[in-house]
Amino acid sequence: MYTKGLLGGVLLVLLTACPSGGSGGGSSNIGGTVSLGSSITGQRLQIDPQPGKLRHTGEARFVPGEVLVEFRGGVSLQSVSSLRLQVQGRPVELQQVRPLGLPHTALFRAELSEAETPALLSALRSRSEVVSADLNWLEQPLATPNDPGYSFQWHYPAINLPQAWDRTTGSNSVVVAILDTGVLFRSGNPAQSHPDIGNRLLPGYDMVSPLSGPNPLANAGDGDGRDADPFDSGDEQSTGYHGTHVGGTVGAATNNSQGVAGVDWTARLLHVRVIGLLGATVADQVDAILWAAGEPVPGVPTNANPAKVLNMSLGGKSPCTSVRQSAINRVTGKGAVVVVAAGNENDDASLYSPASCANVITVGATDYAGARAPYSNYGARVDVMAPGGDVRKDLNSDGYVDGVLSLGFDEQTQQFNYKFENGTSMAAPHVAGVVALMKALSPSLETAQVLQILKSTARPLNATQCNRPSGSECGAGLIDANAALAAVQGGTTASFSLSTANTILSAQPGGSVNVPITISRSGGFADAVNLSLQGAPAGVSGSFNPPSTTLNDSTLTLNVAPSVPNGTYALTVRGTSSSTFASLPLSLRVGSGTSATVQGTLVLACFVAGGECDPNRSKAIQINQGGTSASYSIPDLAQGDYAVLGWNDLNNNDSVDQGDYLGGVVDNAGNLAAVRPGNLRADFQLDVLSGDISRLSPGVLRSLERVGAK
After folding, report:
1. Which of 430, 464, 529, 559 has the least C-beta neighbours within 10 A?
2. Which SUPFAM superfamilies match (predicted)?
3. CA–CA distance from 245 to each of 25, 306, 394, 422 (Å)?
4. CA pair distance 260, 248, nearest whole angstrom
5. Which pLDDT tens digit goes with each residue over 663-684?
6. C-alpha–C-alpha distance, residues 597 and 646, integer Å
7. Active site residues per annotation
8. 146-149 contacts, C-beta under 8 A, 24 or more apart
9. pTM higher than 0.70, yes or no?
């Protein structure tokens, strides 16, 4: 039976070394049964549940080697003048400096560096006599930038950013990519460069490619195709210099006595122009995502400064496509965090992309009052909220509209300026900037860890503030930058995340899909997680086995009634446990334009040589029988090892791609099995291909497509 081998990454090592059974005697053929499957499988995203090491930049914010320890009531401070601990595998002796004014609490000191000190906390907290242990923080007056426009940036105090700046203002080792309209900046040309961008820009790229039609460069607007110049070639009506405004929120030159402040003062910024005068194609977005994170893109020089945070303040009312999801999965698998805007339609965010994609942080917008902005999308797919503003109001009576203030350009005077704008596009870079600050403290933080910290430290919105039947439709609530950084500095946060092999699902009307759900626990989290399905259309129902579990696995069974129309539907799996929750977005495609049948399936006996398929010595037959299963036989095979695969090219394009049926004979580990000719039954199952096709062995692809073209 086909399980996970073809999409689980195992085809990089094509075959196991031993045959699956049988001998080479009798007639030299392979036969068996091919059938349609009902489960969609694919590559599991592996998430490291361990938090990264604490890393400070700049001046230390706590006293190295010092900790505050509170003991249980029965412990006398005189009896603990010193403590001996094992810290990261070596003995450390703590000496009591003095008791504090609190009961059973004292200051202790060890000869440790700043980098070594945080490891004391877990060692102390594991002791039965210790109630609490904390670093001896060295606090300073709140950091307030001297940029004159900062007093109008109400949106920073709204998320406790000034307090957060006393923890860190960022690190130049963190790169934030802004995938947008480009930037008003050209190195060495002040006339074309906004003066408040500063010197932190890295060499970006223009990913806007020519379109088909009579004017291929209409979208680019700069007279050429892709190049190393991400300058915004639009105007107020087309691009609105959107990318410059968004980039300014992430990291305008700050504390420079000019203009406005950015969320992160130090991170380096990488502008990738992906939105042209007409919009952003998915193809350009996919390349931009990969390039920004340092992945190779054909025809484009590799980015020498891979980003660890990507901001995408763009989107449209469409499902998350498989290719876009695959690109996101690839970069998040490398440790990058992708932040996206929820959308501005006052609608369910699960209907929009990339807001509905998995492995992204989807951000809704709040106004000056801390309520959901009237335009902001909402729903189960929203993770957190951040200030997006509302230019129709002046609730703080400062004489200016309550928009987000950042970098701009005045078309009439042809002068660079600063503008108040509103939208979830303005909310997302607040989160991207905070994520950059988090990564300055702990560079190895991954998406699931970042998201759980943001959620667990956010301030929830109630139903009235969210202006929806439930406050949960505004995600975890308004982010709190200071609390988020404190959580990073404090170490482990008890939490969980949800994942599955594939988030892009397919089923026929009247069929079903089994979705294995993985619950990844971290920080000692051990409570039961309750699972539910949200956003299912009429006729689509889901059940979990088990629905509540303290284990790490559950299976969602989606049943699709025959009456469900063909189309793509956005679903969300929600896991809750007390105040902790996690969401997993799914995209369900019902129908494919082709009835579920094995008819037309090519069954290939792929001759294995040197760990790959040899197309010249392989043979294939085609199934002409209809139905959900059929027997087959491939005769006259030479002796040797064969991989047996089946492929139904549903869109008749002679290419193995998303939505086709694919399957093969695998062993118990899910690897393709080596099959020997000789009256051996080789049964296997076809499933809809919806995983990362780049993981398929090139030899398998060439062989399948070669026999398909015949």
Report:
1. 464
2. Subtilisin-like (SSF52743)
3. 72, 22, 20, 11
4. 8
5. 888 765 556 777 888 755 678 7
6. 13
7. 180, 242, 425
8. 146/255, 146/256, 146/257, 147/252, 147/254, 147/255, 147/256, 147/257, 147/258, 147/259, 147/260, 147/261, 148/257, 148/258, 148/259, 149/259, 149/260, 149/261, 149/405, 149/418
9. no
